[in-house]
């Protein structure tokens, strides 16, 4: 099924495209009931994935542009002053089945051969195949704990380490992690949940017209897959072209300092755990601006990125549920307004009007916009900093 032929699921398709443009975002968790098209969309993404550079002849697909993450074989070639030849290949979707064994995931070692041949004795696993690709885990909430631990280690360090009998061999494993889950079948471990930068909750609520169109396209695809794909070639090419253009300008998109401050203020006011959400929102905002063909991040980019990055985040050390969509929009909008005004205040101690009337402040779940709120404190802090500088 062509990616552009999927009916609805716009937020999910956007989250996947953003990861295709900027793999450094790191992935997306897709939650929703059965039969909502989660797996179909992920598989359809493969046709749109861009090309990446790899070292020619490397078993692990090392990226020549990141010398700090070369495998032992490529690193030794560099040390011997050999010029690494490179080539381009298309990113692909690597599937991680629930029945996978640990050896199949991280790779296996023949100890006798290791002593004779070194890293050549390593039989690469799925984490090696996933390097510079998309690692797709269906029903990720049902993955055994020991495999989750291996996955977390690789996702955090971008390196896969295999240790057997005191022998340790490592190779790069930098991948986009995409997982799907049905909440009815169980929750996800908090440690793994936090490793998914973006989250989209897919619902089964379609309008009657959408359901009819979905059936029409499904029947047409099953009747003649080739003809159906040909009919959607132009739209596929158009989206593929947008992705390529976005990748080209991605490094030139500007995230203004007051926008960055607004992101930090919003995350702080919502009391999300850790600083990873701030980083993810910043990356996703920049990527969305590039996808729209703009060279500067806007409030709308930050709203979209915040919705995708915060809807699954625990808060206040896990004591609070993730913020609602309305809470997220209000937080990033209010933070942006305050951050913008802080640049244009006539007096360093001037307080914005909405911060004077603290009793009428709008209260969010886990964060207040009143006089004692975190937002109200930012104006005071900025004023003190400016007075101190004077």
- The domain tally reads 2
What is the H level of CATH, i.e. the homologous superfamily of the largest domain?
A: P-loop containing nucleotide triphosphate hydrolases
Going across the biggest sheet, name each strand in turn.
4-7-10-1-11
Mean pLDDT: 80
User: What is the approximate shape?
Assistant: globular
User: Number of helix segments?
Assistant: 17
- By secondary-structure content and strand pairing, the structural class works out as alpha/beta
The parts where pLDDT drops under 50 for at least 5 residues are 346-351, 354-372
| Helix proportion range | 40-55%
The N- to C-terminal Cα distance equals: 63 Å
At the first level of CATH, what is the class of the largest domain? Alpha Beta
* CATH architect. name of the largest domain: 3-Layer(aba) Sandwich
The ordered string of helix (H) and strand (E) elements is HEHEHEEHEHEHEHEEEHEHHHHHHHHEEH
Number of strands: 13
The largest β sheet comes out as: 5 strands, parallel
Query: What is the radius of gyration?
Result: 24 Å
Tell me the CATH topology of the largest domain. Rossmann fold
Strand percentage, roughly? Answer: 5-15%
């Amino acid at each position: 099924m062509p990616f552009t032929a999927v009916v609805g699921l716009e937020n999910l398709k956007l989250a996947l495209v953003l990861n295709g443009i900027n793999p450094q975002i790191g992935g997306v968790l897709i939650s929703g009931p059965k039969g909502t098209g989660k797996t179909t969309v992920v598989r359809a993404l493969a046709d749109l994935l861009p090309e990446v550079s790899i070292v020619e002849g490397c078993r692990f697909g090392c990226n020549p542009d990141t010398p700090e993450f070369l495998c032992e074989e490529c690193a030794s070639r560099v040390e011997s002053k050999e010029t690494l030849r490179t080539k381009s290949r298309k990113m692909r979707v690597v599937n991680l089945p629930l029945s996978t064994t640990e050896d199949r995931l991280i790779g296996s070692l023949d100890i006798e051969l290791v002593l004779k041949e070194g890293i050549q004795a390593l039989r690469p696993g799925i984490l090696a195949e996933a390097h510079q690709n998309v690692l797709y885990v269906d029903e990720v909430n049902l993955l055994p704990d020991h495999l989750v631990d291996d996955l977390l280690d690789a996702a955090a360090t971008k390196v896969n380490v295999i240790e057997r009998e005191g022998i340790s061999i490592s190779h790069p494993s930098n991948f986009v992690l995409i997982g799907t889950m049905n909440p009815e079948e169980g929750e996800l471990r908090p440690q793994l949940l936090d490793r998914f930068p973006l989250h989209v909750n897919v619902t089964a609520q379609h309008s009657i017209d959408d359901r009819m169109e979905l059936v029409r396209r499904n029947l047409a695809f099953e009747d003649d897959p080739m003809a159906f794909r040909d009919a959607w070639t132009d739209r596929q090419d158009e989206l593929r072209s947008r992705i390529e253009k976005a990748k080209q300008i991605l490094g030139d998109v500007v995230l203004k300092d007051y926008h960055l401050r607004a992101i930090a203020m919003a995350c702080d006011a919502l009391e999300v755990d850790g600083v990873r959400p701030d980083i993810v929102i910043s990356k996703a905002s920049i990527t969305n601006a590039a996808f729209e063909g703009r060279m500067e991040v806007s409030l709308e980019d930050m709203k979209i990125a915040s919705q995708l990055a915060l809807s699954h985040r625990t808060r206040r050390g896990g004591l609070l549920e993730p913020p609602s969509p309305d809470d997220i929009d209000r937080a990033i909008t209010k933070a942006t307004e305050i951050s913008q005004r802080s640049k244009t205040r006539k007096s360093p101690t001037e307080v914005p009007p909405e911060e004077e009337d603290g009793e009428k402040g709008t209260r969010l779940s886990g964060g207040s916009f009143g006089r004692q709120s975190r937002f109200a404190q930012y104006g005071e802090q900025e004023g003190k900093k400016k007075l101190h500088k004077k």
